[in-house]
Amino acid sequence: MTLRTFAAAWRWTPGTACHICTSWQRDAVCSACRRRFRPIGHRCRCCAVSLVGLNEVCRRCILRPPAFDHALAALDYAYPWDGLVTRFKFGGACELAGPLAERMTEALQTAAAQPGFVQPDVLLPVPLSDARQRERGYNQAWELARRVGPALGIAAQARWVERVLDTPHQTGLDREARMHNLRGAFAVPAAGRAGLPGRSVAILDDVMTTGSTAQELAATLRRAGVVHVQTWVLARTVSDDAAP
Ligand SMILES: [Zn+2]
Ligand SMILES: [Zn+2]
């Protein structure tokens, strides 16, 4: 009996342990966990923070609109997704890129079906400095963008913007301190100067906390001639102060 006929006889299919509940099944995150931990409620149209009530824009964005036009988040940076994102970002678990990119693609496909959605011309993953990328071995934003882009039919460009200043880890810093650290962190090389003017772009990142990174990058892109900037993140912290 071959392995194939043996498997058919026992209705066995190769599977994996769900990264959340560890049940043995087909997907890296099982359908029960995807349903159970689906974000509910709605988000600020500008910065994607969770909102209660019917307001479309949060108080902070009314008082100080960000440099980007819109933000979309697939998940809350809360249990159980925070654990998966931490393993993906800091624990070397690059194999989580696929299942996390699927969550992002699903959320963006839902958003794309809504009126007012602007389809960007290009996806720009937030770049790491060369030193940080060497230390980590991969750029988690690129690992998401190179999967999400083709799924949505949008080109992802890893080299149209670069990080020229290595900022210290932002964990625990407030918005003002983060903005100060990030000033001048990004630059647009020749490929971006040729490709960006007149374009609509989406910045893609893993987590948005205060939005400082997207703010600085969006301002850099505007100076390079980009006409519409949105920010797409895998996970949004529940408030601006819950820094990962
Ligand atoms: Zn599960
Ligand atoms: Zn907001």
Describe this protein's structure.
This protein is α/β, with parallel strands linked by helices and 244 residues long. The protein has 2 domains: 1-36, no CATH class; 42-236, Rossmann fold (3-Layer(aba) Sandwich). 37% of the residues lie in helices and 18% in strands. The strands form 4 sheets. It has a 5-stranded parallel sheet, with helices on both faces. A two-stranded antiparallel ribbon has the order 1-2. α5 (97-112) packs across α7 and α8 packs parallel to α10 (212-223). The protein is globular, with a radius of gyration of 19 Å. Bound molecules: zinc ion (ZN) (2 copies). One zinc ion binds next to α3. One zinc ion (ZN) binds at residues 18, 20-21, 23, 30, 32-33.
Sheet with most strands: strand arrangement: 5-11-10-6-7
Radius of gyration: 19 Å
What is the share of helical residues?
25-40%
Helix-strand category = alpha/beta
Note the main sheet: 5 strands, parallel
Q: Give the oligomeric state.
A: single chain
User: Which compounds are bound in this model?
Assistant: zinc ion
The number of helical runs is 10
What is the average per-residue confidence, as pLDDT, rounded to a whole number?
89
Number of domains: 2
| Series of secondary-structure elements, N-terminal to C-terminal | HEEHEEHEHHEHHEEHEHEHE
CATH architecture designation of the largest domain: 3-Layer(aba) Sandwich
The total strand number stands at: 11
N- to C-terminal distance: 52 Å
* Unreliable residue runs: none
Please tell me what the overall shape is. globular
Instruction: Output the CATH topology of the largest domain.
Output: Rossmann fold
> How large is the share of residues in beta strands?
15-25%
Return the CATH class of the largest domain.
Alpha Beta
